[in-house]
Design brief:
- This protein is α+β, with helices and mostly antiparallel strands and 100 residues long.
- It is built from three helices and six strands.
- The chain has a single domain, classed as Alpha-Beta Plaits (2-Layer Sandwich).
- Strands 4-5-1-6 form a four-stranded antiparallel β-sheet.
- The protein is globular.
- The protein starts with a strand and ends with a strand.
Amino acid sequence: MIKHIVMWTLKNSALDADKADNARKMKELLEGLPARIPCLRSLEVGIDVFASTAPCDVILYSSFDSRADLDTYQLHPEHLKVVDFVKQVVASRSVLDYEV
């Protein structure tokens, strides 16, 4: 099984919305993906609710049965639609993939 973790720091404002609104929209868009991408085994999205000084605002935790499934997900048209939005609102991104 492959675990795919992504952490984003958002711009303070982008696309005529503030950081909090864009974080909520990201969460909504990402949480819609499992219904449209069968190889996505599980997905969880979190938003920093304590307004801490953490280095990220939004985190994605997802799992796949194989590296091939992760590759399929990353190129899936529904995922790429979300990526188009994310690229416009994100200041930085960190990713970690690991196998269990």
